[in-house]
Amino acid sequence: MKDSGIYYSLGALLYIAADNTNIIDDIIFEKFNIPFSLAFSFDMTSNDAEADKAENVLIKTLDKLFVAKKERNFYIPKLFIRVLSTAHIAHLYKKFGSLLDLITGFILPDFSISNADVYIYEMQRINSVLSTPVYILPEPDSMALLNLKTRYNDLYSIKEKLSTYEDYVLNVLVSTGNVLNSFCVRRKVDENIYQSKPVASLISDIVTVFATDYILLAPAFEYYAGIGWEEGLLREIEFDKMNGFVGKTVVHPKQISIVNDAYKVSSIDYDDAQSVLDDKKIYQVCANVNDTRINEPRIHYSWAMQIIFLAKYFGVKKY
Q1: What is the CATH number of the domain that holds 126?
Q2: Which of 55, 95, 159, 271 is 20 to 30 A from 213 (CA-CA)?
Q3: Is pLDDT at 1 greater than 70 in this prediction?
């Protein structure tokens, strides 16, 4: 498991278009529930001209954020850029320059054995010249992984390639939208991603391969309004957590508070985690603080470490 809090701190990762001109005021005047993270995406651009225009808007956004931070104190989320390709990384560095110091990391879409080496090489070049580290959030190519004949080899090959850059892999992102679409499936508000057996199998394999060494961010839940959407999102997050995810991609600011509340640590879990990590009790198997379950440090140590990191970022529920 990861031993630094930064890997557990993405929480709700909100995607917005890179040319969104309103987001800067939303950040400065703290209109969203905090904490959260923010991903600028170029997915909506259909050609080079539109991408160039979106990049110019994003430069103005980051520059305005840099100036505003000098004038007043406000919460700045971790900022990410979802690149268009391997070549886009070097292009952004040349165009954005020192403004990339405001960026926490790059999201690397369609990450696969065919492009992993190039992605990592480009990021090594960037980090060799920037004053602060820029992390990566690889997003495995879920469509390529549908091939059961090659899935396991591909997953372990990707993990092996990432191991050369492990400290810079902030999270591994899991996306399932294209997979659901390929099966002509769209879940209802009261259904969750794990009820689609092929998708659940894919998620399970990704988690099994990566979760022992990396933190994984769960796929998005598409509903943010209407009857039952809060309950549907919360139910899926509970499945996310049980399957080893920490945090979730979100599609609307209204989802942020639900993710944050869901990842708050219960006071019982927090007390148990402290007990498990207590040097004086480290080898003791004993009942927990309210005598409802057994704490066994040898088995629960990694869980306890994660609970402490989550408590620092999301807080502790008083029950």
Answers
A1: 3.20.20.60
A2: 271
A3: no
